[in-house]
Amino acid sequence: MGKQKLKPKTPSPFWNRWLSPILIATISGLLAILINVQSFAIGQSSNIFIPKSQQSAPDLIAVTFPTPQTHKLPPQLAQWQDSSNSGDYFSQVKSTPVGYLIWSRFPIRIHIATPQLSNTIQAKNWVNTVSQTVSEWNNYLPLEIVSHADVADITIIRKAPPLRFDRDRKIIRARSALTTYNLYTKNNILHHQFQILLSPSQTGKYLLAAARHELGHALGIWGHSQKSSDALYPSQVRNPPPISTRDVNTLKQVYQQPTSLGWSVISNK
Ligand SMILES: [Zn+2]
Description:
Elements: H1 13-28, E1 32-35, E2 39-41, E3 61-64, H2 75-79, E4 108-112, H3 120-137, E5 143-145, E6 154-158, E7 177-186, E8 189-198, H4 204-218, H5 245-254, E9 266-267
Helix pairs in contact: 3-4
The protein binds zinc ion.
């Protein structure tokens, strides 16, 4: 969570070449962006930025995002009916520069990286716990666990998220998880890819809750519920809830929205 803005201190040839078009794109609302150089975290504003460290990335391409359109609702969500009228928190879900973060290629491939621990049973238990949340969400969207990270749409790693600092270099707070996405194109189609970092400090039911919550973000719920009985409630609770009816109602709403993802791009190369 949190805003992240990067500004160049001194103009460089890179910025001369690339920053102006980006600023123009941002101001005029044209959805032109450099693909493969930015990642976004939940809670971050939708400002387009480029990491300083990638100032000389060689294979940047400028593309115009496809006009957002809706995809066909996946069968499980199409069949989902809430007879209890529990409502949803769709109003809290944010759109992004590419529209809603919707998957349209199924099954969604998830890689759970086996932690490099000397205690192999502990490593196995970690993978099992995270896998359980994949099974839970699989009731609503087709998911598949894959053994290779390079073919994964979502990668889940046991790793402490980087610390965030304020201007005085004081730590703002340690995060227990961080979910980010990148954009890329393949065969002219705009795609996204997620990475979930789960802190080693999370164990047992809290690991289960964190994995369930972050996977919810990666599957498209790019926002938080205000009710502690939902999996996408932002704070840790003593007895973490399972995926709630409101979570699924919200997910279904998201998948009925337009997105640029999964549609063909026009290259400006
Ligand atoms: Zn969250």
